[in-house]
Amino acid sequence: MKWLVKEEPANYPFTQFVKDGRTIWSGVKNPVAQKNLRAMTPGDQVFYYHTGGEKAVVGVARVATTPQPDPTDASGKLYVVELVPGAALKQPVTLAEVKAVKDFADFALVRLPRLSVMPVSEAQWTWIAKRGGL
Questions:
Q1: Measured between alpha carbons, how far is 75 from 65 in angstroms, rounded to an integer?
Q2: Which pLDDT tens digit goes with each residue over 60-85?
């Protein structure tokens, strides 16, 4: 499967993720986003999306581990995965560009703007990757 994860660039920009070489994707509390995170499998591809003023897909990553219980969550309900960075997009793909494609009206990025982890269809992945110069 393919996914999109969102992060505020002031908090953890894609460039820092690349420097770090891998990261634990944690802090996801929304039940739907948690369901999506728990469905991730090693090798799945992931778009990295900057929220805030940027609102753009800026890079790709891949899932490195199976979902694990979040060790910082006393309730035992939250899970985390480890992500490994891939390449930055040559050209960020903005939310406005995605919204302009009528076939993307059902894309969670368009319909559920607050969802932080979401699936991406093959068609959506291909369009965004091509538009981003991959």
A1: 21
A2: 999 999 999 999 999 999 999 999 99
User: Please, is 111 exposed, middle or buried when counting C-beta atoms within 10 Å of its C-beta (0-12, 13-18, 19+)?
Assistant: exposed
From 129, 69, 127, select the one nearest 99 (Cα to Cα).
127
- Contact assessment for residue 94 and residue 101, using Cβ atoms and an 8 Å cutoff: no
Pairing of strands 45-50, 2-7: parallel
CA dist 71 and 79 (Å) reads 8
27-to-10, 72, 79, 100 alpha-carbon distances in Å: 16, 9, 9, 30
* CA gap 28, 18 in Å, rounded: 20
Which amino acid would we find at residue 134? L
Contact 128, 98 (CB under 8 A): yes
Strands 45-50 and 56-63: antiparallel
pTM equals 0.96
Q: What is the pLDDT of residues 80-97, one digit of tens each?
A: 999 999 999 999 999 999
